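Support reply, case 0932

Customer input (verbatim):
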Amino acid sequence: MTADFIRQIVNPVLNKYMTSLDASRVLGEVKRLFQQGEDTYRFSVYNGDPRNIAVFLKSDIFTRIVDILESSGFSSLLTEILVETKKSYGDIKEVEEAVDEVLSRLKTEKGRVVEVDPLQTIESMLRNTGLFKSVELGGGRLTAETDTGWILQVTRGKKGYRVKAVFTRSYSRGKTSELIGEVVRLAEWISSLRL
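Our regenerated output:
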C-alpha cells in the first residue's frame, strides 16, 4: 500500500520541526489546514483517491499553507514534504506533475524575496480557528472580535507591529459585586499568561 499523505508524510515532517512553542503554534495551524484539505479533497489512501493530492496542491488551502510556512521561515519543511510526496506517489502522473510544478515555483521564488504580509497570514490563521465572529483586515490593521467581548487588534506601524487585546462588558450599577469579581478574574488570568 502507498504511504498515506497526511499520516505518513506530512505529520512526521511537521512533528520533526515542532521544537518550540512558537513553531508548534504555527505548525499546528498548518497541520489543521492539511487536515482540512484531506476532508475537502478526499485524498487519503484509506477512504479516498490519492490522485486528488494533485488537485489539493493547486487549491487555496494549499496556497495558505505555503504562505504561512514561507512567512514563518519553514520553506525547507515544505520542500521536504513535497520531495517525500514525489517519492511515494511518483507512479501517479497527476501527483508527480503537480509536485514538480510547486517545487519549480518554490525554486523560482527562492531567487527573489517573496514578501508575504504577516497581517494576511495572521488573518488566515484567526479565521480558521473558528473563535472569532468577525475578522477584518484593512488599512494596515487587523481586527478580530469574539462573541464573548474580546477584540484583538494587530496594527502595522513604521517600526513594526503592535498587538492589542481589549475586553468589553457592560454592568449595571446594581451589579458591582459581579463587576469586581469579573475584574479580579481577568487580572488573575492576565497575570497567568505566559506569552
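We compared this against your earlier run and they match. Two observations from our side: Helices lie at 5-17, 21-41, 52-56, 60-71, 75-89, 93-110, 118-129, 176-192. The longest strand covers residues 150-156. Please reopen the case if you see a mismatch on your end.
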